[in-house]
Specification:
The structure is a homodimer.
Chain A: E1 13-18, H1 22-34, E2 39-45, H2 49-53, E3 66-68, H3 71-75, E4 81-84, H4 92-101, E5 105-108, H5 111-127, E6 132-133, H6 144-151, E7 157-163, H7 166-176, H8 181-190, H9 199-202, H10 205-219, E8 222-223, H11 238-246, E9 249-259, E10 264-274, H12 278-281, E11 286-293, E12 297-304, H13 308-323, E13 335-336, E14 343-344, E15 346-352, H14 358-369, E16 373-377, E17 387-393, E18 396-397, H15 398-409, E19 419-423
Parallel strand pairs in A: 1-2, 1-4, 2-3, 4-5, 5-6, 8-13, 10-19
Antiparallel strand pairs in A: 7-9, 7-11, 9-10, 11-12, 14-18, 15-17, 15-19, 16-17
């Protein structure tokens, strides 16, 4: 049973699982519950494995599983597939490379590793005749990667926009309902939706890694994550939701990429989305991805982006694809340059000490760069000495509007840095 | 080049296309535009092929294509894959069976054929070592079948509900906006969304075929389409949309299946859907499918359900999957029994000659079968001699409520057959 020489002649696929936290234990239980033909969990690796093995999470798992805290045991074992649910770049990148070198297929939910080193690991996998699969790394239980790999490969995907971070979506949809940023962040942390250090989520790094993976799988575009600009959601305030509502919009963290075949534009950040768009429908920790194909038009995918069981479904589906031999797709190895220049309508929120001539000064700064004002909105009920008001523009380039904002930010009446957000287009008629 | 003995040693996949209508010509142009490696369109079959070959649709296609109106030419050719875009059970069932027997892979968009004879054809394909793929048969450009086959196979899908017929969705979403059924049907026919004989669409047969295909691929449940009850949308009137709005709902044609592992419930028909549910967001000819997995929860897919280019994307993606050898998945051969017994809240619309005691008589009939009234709604402004009013019930079984409706329908004050619709549950919190 532990003889690796018999691997190819046996039908059973032996599986080693790295990590026995929320996702890892859900994977183990899903495999046990569903009893898929020809797939058997043989090993579980975790640091401090005895504590894990004795925990309530381990109850009900069959007794033949070998529990270990020595990664060398796993890499030297007869496992055909290594499932990774631990995360992080190091040491995981080296461990998984060694697993591939040892002829083991790898299934991983590790978005940072795949975003930064996926191309190299995929090449390694190809060279050694094994698969590297990572559908669980993007949007958890929403099968957007299998859908684009197997169902949209006949199209030419030109745009992807996604709500890819459940924590931000939870925070922003709670703020939409009136909650304060800090209160709702604390609530998300208490509920386990947000980390103690929320940087990766709220500043956009998590969504950016997922966007890079989507770009590679759906658009055949390799990207260096560090080349994609991010904007934090920390500066979005309740007043912005009030103004957004006046504009028939709400605010979501949107990760976007567009390609016209030449230039690749990409960014992650809080964005105004029309109430009529699917992005506004996404509440709580849900994820949502919209792909726009040159031939097939818009396709929307949504569901649970995180959580043990939804992510475990993605991991186990990948495992079954590997076991049934239908997992290989070749993807680009080279990274493309990224432009941050989008042409979009923009939302500008200022907080000023109200004095005559402010609107005229702002309008002048915008006119100077050629940005046309679409609307000026000032809600009643705010104090004159710290007055928030909003200007929206017609579509113009990011650089153009940023130039005006830099000028406006220096005006003495400005009490804080202006907030600049993109406004997503209305959905197209079908 | 035309020597079938060389097939396996050549890398190029030769493709024969059956049908050169809206979808077929879009497939031909997509293959020509995208220039996929290793795939070449070699033959096009259609009745009256000379007219097709001389049409504007044929412009720009490369000159090496052999155009024919003799199916025997195609079946005897060296084509590796036959793509079918014609539709219908006969003679297509026999033609495609012969193609499979001849060792050709088959890619088809033929929903009726796959719903009625897919299990047999799949078995034939397996026996001859070739693939039968039909992602384009359900929801056109929305890759729901690849997504469930490759991305949700680790889950146990318990429910599927879908808006699977673009014509009905166009009609009902226009009625929601105030249009008359007959006017909007005429408009749909003029725009090419609806056939001259709209029976297959409005009476639910089209959606039913697609539901059966989804049941088989996502839930491993074989169904005889004729065993699934359908309810027409012809009896839905504007007044029902007004009452639905009062109930914070709208009306869509919904195809549903549920399985608890034992009983399989399935039906197609107009259904009240809450404004807060994704089903209410689907407008125009869009399709939308929601799967509910035991582990991964709800996943929503939406996009263009029909049209030449979106359907061509699905067909060509299938072709590429076949060419790359990642298309085979084994599915059930046996059909399961279908129950029409759902437990759901219900909407009952009556048109009566208003007389004292009517409400009490209706309430009595409902009480007698144990159905609890949730609300009684009577909008002002309708004539007393043909008064529509609505009763909604708490969840109860279809048989229970039907028994009461049968009693009520016989009451002398009833001016027409009562309309009985199911009400879909509110979306679950994520």
């Amino acid at each position: 049973m532990e003889n690796s020489a018999t691997r190819s002649s046996e039908k059973e696929t032996r599986v080693a699982l790295l990590g026995f936290g929320t996702v890892g234990s859900a994977v183990a239980h899903l495999l046990q519950t569903q009893q898929f033909d020809g797939v058997r969990l043989t090993r579980i690796y975790n640091r401090g494995i005895q504590r894990k093995q004795g925990s309530t999470r381990a109850e009900g798992l069959h007794g033949d599983i070998i529990w270990t805290d020595n990664i060398e045991d796993v890499l030297a074992s007869d496992a055909d597939v290594v499932i990774e649910t631990i995360g992080g770049l190091d040491p995981m990148g080296e461990w998984l490379a060694r697993a591939l070198l040892a002829g083991k297929h790898v299934v991983t939910a590790n978005k940072q590793l795949i975003a930064y080193r996926g191309a190299g690991l995929s090449q390694l996998a190809r060279e050694h005749g094994v698969s590297l699969v990572y559908n669980a790394a993007v949007a958890g239980g929403v099968p957007v990667i299998p859908a684009v790999l197997h169902g949209l490969q006949g199209d030419r995907v030109r745009q992807i926009a996604g709500i890819l971070n459940g924590t931000c979506n939870f925070i922003l949809s709670q703020m939409e309902a009136g909650a304060d940023y800090h209160d709702v962040l604390a609530k998300a942390q208490a509920a386990g939706y947000a980390e103690a250090d929320p940087t990766a989520d709220v500043d956009g790094y998590d969504a950016r890694a997922k966007l890079c993976i989507l770009a590679r799988t759906a658009m055949q575009i390799g990207l260096d994550p560090d080349a994609v600009p991010v904007q934090t959601i920390r500066n979005v305030r309740l007043v912005d939701f009030h103004y957004a509502r006046d504009l028939n919009c709400t605010i979501r963290q949107v990760a976007r990429i567009e390609s016209d075949g030449e230039t690749v534009r990409a960014r992650v950040g809080p964005t105004l989305v029309p109430h009529t768009s699917p992005f506004a429908w996404s509440h709580g920790t849900q994820n949502l991805v919209m792909t726009t194909g040159e031939f097939g038009g818009d396709v929307v995918f949504s569901g649970h982006g995180a959580g043990g069981n939804p992510t475990a479904v993605a991991v186990v589906s990948d495992l079954l694809a590997v076991a049934h031999g239908s997992a290989s797709v070749s993807l680009p190895v080279q990274n493309r340059a990224v432009s941050r220049e989008f042409v979009a309508p923009h939302y500008l929120r200022f907080v000023v000490q109200d004095k005559p001539g402010i609107v005229s000064a702002i309008a002048g700064a915008l006119a100077q760069v050629g940005a046309n004002i679409d609307s000026i909105v000032q809600r009643p009920g705010y104090p004159k000495d710290a007055l928030p008001f909003v200007v929206t523009t017609e579509p113009c380039s990011t650089a153009t509007i940023q130039q005006a904002v830099d000028t406006i930010a220096k005006m003495p009446t400005m009490l804080e840095e202006p907030l600049l957000l993109q406004i997503l287009r209305e959905p197209q008629e079908s």
